[in-house]
Amino acid sequence: MSALEIVNRDPASQARTGRLKLARGTVRTPAFVPLATKGSVKSLTPDDVTGLGFDMVLGNTFHLMLSPGPERVKDFGGLAEFMRWPGPVITDSGGFQVFSMGHGTVADEVKGRRSKPEASQGQGRILAIEEQGVRFRSYVDGSEMFMGPETSMEIQAALGSDIALVFDECTPFHVTRDYTARSTERTHRWLDRCLEWHSANGPQEQLVYSIVQGGVYEDLRRESAAAVASRATGGIAIGGSLGADKAQMYEVVSWATDELDRTAGERPRHLLGIGEVDDLIRGVELGIDTFDCAMPTRLARHGTAMAPRPEKRWRLDLTHATGRDDHGPLVEGCECPCCAAGFSRAYLHYLVKAREFTVMRLLTLHNLYFVVKLMERLRLAIDEGDLPAVAAALRAGAAPWEA
Ligand SMILES: [Zn+2]
């Protein structure tokens, strides 16, 4: 039986609302999952995050393995207990971070937004990619480390997450079709090893999600989707390079979800590392249930607010001097803790320039509020049967609370 109970479906697309029932609670879907990479949503407390309306956070296996280490977290009863987060937690497998070291360190590059020559493969701090797993150097102390399917599952078992992701190779955009094909096959073999380890040793209540790879090649994506759907996992994630631009990204995701519609039953689907406003809208239409992305929180820490400005990729850069004398609010009509407190753009611009910690927190609250309201609006639209009109209004620049 699927952990996802589908509540309503949009007749015009693959979108659905649901309730994802996990060990520590229920996630209302479609949902955005904020990153608690190293065990905190940077600058916020768990109360802040639940107060905004989020049901689940994502912890990072790779970073938590290096520090504070899985044994220390386990000793406190798992990541949720360690960080005092009252709800469900998803952990990624660490594959993305491990492979980012070899395929180029910038996440955008792995998502295919910047091309790199083939020669960059194997550089960075990966020492070897082998059938058994990956050997690499720790960025913390330079020591040699190893991660393979069993290691990743063992760490995620110690972290005690509600959802564990299988260990995969996150293939970047610039590799060849042949490399992608071989890597995808190895990812499927690693999937079986992850499932074997988990069925023998993993926490019973922990759901395991497989990951669809296959790069930007339609046959490989479809084969990978069918292959992972054929394994008994709790859910399915879509990862790897999704293309060079948004049009290609949507096409690549649609190949996977189209295949999953036919073969995966009603299992929940997670789209890895995608979180721009238009991408969330399209992802929901393609039948994605959960998303995670560093973008809203990372932008906040760099002085950029999310705003209903599609022509500016829904961004308002507060480092620009144009806001210096602006008495107006950050975003008109926003009721986030930052906007509700009445802070002017001028004050926030000044705090950004002065590098005050407070503004990182204020903008993080605002950006996550913007995203949580967007997801709430999309869920309501699906439930009320007017997703096409609401999606069009949001794409045209309506704020989530106006659309
Ligand atoms: Zn706000």
Brief synopsis:
The protein has 403 residues and is of the alpha/beta class. It has 16 helices and 16 strands.
Report on this structure.
The structure is a single chain. This protein has 403 residues and is an alpha/beta fold. It folds into 2 domains: 4-293, Queuine tRNA-ribosyltransferase-like (TIM Barrel, Alpha-Beta Barrel); 301-395, no CATH class. Helices cover 42% and strands 16% of the residues. It has 16 helices and 16 strands. It has helices at 46-52, 61-66, 70-75, 79-83, 95-103, 107-110, 149-159, 177-201, 218-229, 246-263, 277-285, 295-301, 337-340, 345-353, 357-384, 387-395, and strands spanning 4-9, 16-22, 25-29, 31-33, 57-59, 89-91, 126-129, 134-137, 144-147, 163-165, 207-212, 235-238, 269-271, 290-292, 304-306, 315-317. It has an 8-stranded parallel β-sheet. Helix 7 crosses helix 8 (177-201), helix 8 (177-201) packs parallel to helix 9 and helix 12 (295-301) packs antiparallel against helix 15. The protein is globular and about 60 Å long. It starts with a strand and ends in an 8-residue tail after the last helix. Mean pLDDT is 93; it is low at 105-110 and 112-124. Bound molecules: zinc ion. Zinc ion (ZN) is lined by residues 330-331, 334, 336, 338-339, 366, 369.
Write the layout of secondary structure elements.
Blueprint: E1 4-9, E2 16-22, E3 25-29, E4 31-33, H1 46-52, E5 57-59, H2 61-66, H3 70-75, H4 79-83, E6 89-91, H5 95-103, H6 107-110, E7 126-129, E8 134-137, E9 144-147, H7 149-159, E10 163-165, H8 177-201, E11 207-212, H9 218-229, E12 235-238, H10 246-263, E13 269-271, H11 277-285, E14 290-292, H12 295-301, E15 304-306, E16 315-317, H13 337-340, H14 345-353, H15 357-384, H16 387-395
Parallel strand pairs: 4-14, 5-6, 6-10, 10-11, 11-12, 12-13, 13-14
Antiparallel strand pairs: 1-2, 2-3, 7-8, 8-9, 15-16
Helix pairs in contact: 7-8, 8-9, 9-10, 11-15, 12-15, 15-16
